[in-house]
Description:
By secondary structure, the protein is α+β, with helices and mostly antiparallel strands. 42% of the residues lie in helices and 23% in strands. β5 (112-119) and β6 form a beta hairpin.
Amino acid sequence: MSDTAHNEIVLMREKAISELGLLDPGFDKTLDQVVDLACSLLDVPMGAFTVINKDRLFFKALRGTDTREMPAENSFSRLVVEADRPLEVTDASTDVRFKDNVEVCGPQHVRFYTGYPIHAANGVAIGALCVLDQEPRQFTPQQMEQFDGLRILVEETLRLRSQSLMDPLTGLYNRRYLKLSLPQEWQRASRQQLPLSILMIDVDHFKDFNDSYGHSAGDTCLLQISELMHGEIHRPTDILARFGGEEFMILLPETDFSGMELVAANILKSIRSAKIPHRKSSSGHLTVSIGGATIKPDALARVTPDGLLKAADRCLYGAKATGRNNAYFTRVDELAATTE
């Protein structure tokens, strides 16, 4: 695998883990129950659901040990995720890959390990469902089939969780997902001292569009608008969501004021170029208004995520008040607005 392909998979994995809320502190109660079931069903003393983010392995469900995280390089599960296939180690003390591993030589005294890769909705392996024992052993084909059934249960649980964060019409993230993501990105921006920006986009005179063309055409229009905006989002860390009705929002991590302006300008250009007919619009075509707000790292401690949202919302009203079909921005730390 090329370095480019590997890096792309790593980014997709990080995004999926973040989307599912698996980086939040603590264990996941639902997945904890699956791990308990696996240990009981297969008669093993230890089990876990792990996720790998960058170079760390995090335990999101656990039985038989109190480990919370560890370097990914020291884990059996890293091989499961990287190879994207099941792994069974019947006696780690005689396996050249693991006999010197800290989990084998240390107090955990692991001898037996079986793990299945767990995939997110995007198809990328994000972690492993695994069971362990301090004695060498080997599962029967029937036990492996039972374990695979639990793997399916975990993936189905994550799939349903992912669906609850998606807008069914456009396939974009929904308001709930954005509300969950903003505090996480806020913390990351504060920790790494990075700027953070947000755009709020509203389809101009959309009620008139629905009244004129019908709600079915309105749904088609929203889908087309979402596709045009998605075409201007080029980084996997950027989050485009349908915030409600004809309103959309884009969360732009690591993006300063000029970067935010560029994204907004490209969206306006893309939608204007599409020339979607709108007989009730003064231009004869559908347009959008955009409000944007950005915050510098040194101001994150003085403002809340909700404050950034409100600033973007005020700018959206500013764009509407100045004729629509344009963008209006503010630097939250400076409270100085500009128009474009």
